[in-house]
Amino acid sequence: MNTHPLPIPVFDIVIFGSTGDLALRKLLPALFRLFLDGRVPAGSRVLGVARERQTDAAYRAAVESALRVAVADARQDDLQRFLGSVSYHALDATQAEGWDAFAAACNTGDQRVRVFYLSTSPALFADICQQLHRHALDGPGSRVVVEKPIGRDLKSAIAINDAVGRVFDEQRIFRIDHYLGKETVQNLLALRFANTLFEPLWNSDHIEHVHITVAESIGVGKRGPYYDGTGALRDMVQNHLLQLLCMAAMEPPSSLDPEAVREEKLKVLRSLKPIPAAEAARLSVRGQYVAGTGTEGAMPGYLEDIGKATSGTESFAAVRAELGNWRWAGVPFYLCTGKRLAERVSEISVSFRSIPHSIFADVSGTITPNRLVLRLQPDEGVHLYLMSKYPESDGLHLKPVSLNMSFADAFGVRQLDAYERLLLDVVRGNLTLFMHRDEIEAAWRWIDPIETAWSSATGGPEPYAAGSWGPASAAPFLLRGISGEGDSPLGAPVRSGG
User: Best label site of 181, 356, 374, 487, fewest CB within 10 Å?
Assistant: First the structure.
């Protein structure tokens, strides 16, 4: 996050894995929208790299098709101007062939910023970085963007960090988590540290518990082979949910300097109380969806989606986390994520403690604790739930109401999406919204014992119906405090209208 954004220099962005889903569905549309906004300086280039052998024209046609889907109202002349900056290079990171020609294409002779975006399997990170070094493409103006997953456990994460770190120093490694680029997540900093209203209450004296939920209504889709070797705990909790926890729980940084912010996030991760194997069954739940019915009608189960007869991989993960520090002692943080759930919603719900004494004993209506909900998707905004008198009642009747702020309605401007914002930060060299290697490794230290306990437990993930809110056994510790319109294992997420 920049209080005074730095100018945008001329840049090249090189996308390894440029024919993949992430590149075509997220990265290239983000670059195109930045181009339409005038945020891509003249002379900047997009170099696509993948193993497939195809011409520039064929690749540009694929990019154009993807952009027409992502930016439906794009004009043909704008598309053609953007596509004129796009080229394609067939490379195998594990082979020497083609790298000399690629290096020649990269070397423009000026001092432009050069971004290498590794949208590939982590198994290729080391090979790609070594080739970049071998061909002198790792100069001071070069930086590398690393996508998750960064390893599948602590040992592999350290190996990846070491391999990338041998070529690029820490100030030029951008470990990306697109949730940190969302408007609501950044507004959490403003909400807490630019207002006197919340920060004095942001502690265990006033907060009962916090729910961090990332629910998806879709199944694994085309990611089946990857997902079945990863699971919800590694795919979502280790990175996205723990990063949201850091933003919600960290101490005020001394400034918005990237190192100051990342140091406070690291303190949160290091204060996570370990979950020993003996406690994993009580403090966590894993599930796997089976065939069910939702808003889309009949939906297949996980095994049908991945084309296997059996699998022990979880598509639902919930963990009760606690922080061992003064601010948050005794406050549970419920981290929950799953696929094929009843609704697509991501939010941070902060539930405050009940009032210490009620003077409304003879008043109709139930007093419910205040709640602050930060909605990340699908409609980004902030909802504050308060008690109020119902105006059309005889006497005093209390009812919970919500104060809603939709970012789209409040400001009336187009919001940068997460990848647009983060790509700009990479080009500008701003590391605030990216993860330090110590954060990655601290997160794995906490996740590994849970994963080990699940792997050694008898029985597999608990089944839950597609289109439901998850396994029944999640209810005892996920039901509390978040339910706004009916009970469910996750708690019914809030609606925009309250």
Answer: 356
